[in-house]
Design a protein that fits this description.
- There is one protein chain.
- By secondary structure, this protein is of the alpha+beta class.
- It is built from 2 helices and 9 strands, in the order E-E-H-H-E-E-E-E-E-E-E.
- Strands 1, 2, 3, 6, 7, 8 and 9 form a 7-stranded antiparallel sheet that branches. Strands 4-5 form a two-stranded antiparallel ribbon.
- It is globular, with a radius of gyration of 16 Å.
- Mean pLDDT is about 75; it is low at about 75-90 and about 185-203.
Length: about 200
């Protein structure tokens, strides 16, 4: 029932749009979550308009930020930025907060991603029923191509395609609709970052 905890998911294949496809994902394919509203239908997006990054320059900027975060937070020894109060984002360190400011602020997540009151994060406070199971959080995942050479899942460069929903229940179990075996869940060869952080609320 905590509403001061948020979660989001991002993934990236090789950060080179000319690289050979890996498991059907061309180079620089981006996967990014979007907050899902309650009352959705299993197997269908329920987060409004799909993410879209039409500009190649903007896709490259987003990919570079994800790649930098992967190196710093996933591969490196530091975990700073994953437990940071709102409004204290650093300007120099590569952190989740730096690239993913709250949707109430003026910044966009990973340069290009904010849609109204929906960002890439979701709170744990809104219960939903997915495949008959009550979950405390659900995120729709979108796949954004920077190239189509080697693409085996279908898609248009720059236009996000809904590929599934990830869920988390009150005990921390993470699930997916459809099942991960039916598609390359956020890039089988990609390194995915599932980031949790506490956002302290002002009284």
């Amino acid at each position: 029932t905590r509403t001061d905890l948020y979660w989001g998911a991002i993934a990236l294949t090789v950060n080179d749009s000319t690289a050979a496809a890996i498991n059907g994902d061309p180079g620089q394919t981006i996967y990014v979550s979007k907050a899902r509203t309650a009352g959705g239908t299993d197997g269908l997006a329920h987060s409004g308009t799909a993410w879209s990054i039409a500009s190649g320059t903007n896709r490259n900027a987003t990919a570079n930020q994800i790649a930098g975060l992967q190196t710093t937070v996933v591969s490196g020894s530091t975990q700073d930025g994953t437990d940071t109060a709102a409004g204290t984002q650093t300007t120099s360190a590569v952190t989740w907060d730096k690239y993913n400011p709250p949707v109430t602020s003026s910044g966009k997540s990973f340069t290009n991603l904010t849609s109204g009151s929906l960002g890439i994060e979701q709170t744990f406070g809104a219960s939903q029923t997915v495949q008959g199971q009550t979950v405390v959080g659900a995120l729709d995942m979108y796949r954004i191509l920077s190239a189509t050479t080697g693409d085996t899942f279908g898609g248009t460069v720059g236009t996000g395609k809904y590929v599934g929903t990830i869920t988390i229940d009150s005990t921390g179990n993470v699930g997916a609709v459809p099942e991960p075996s039916t598609y390359a869940l956020f890039g089988l060869a990609a390194v995915a970052l599932l980031a949790f952080r506490r956002r302290l609320q002002k009284a």
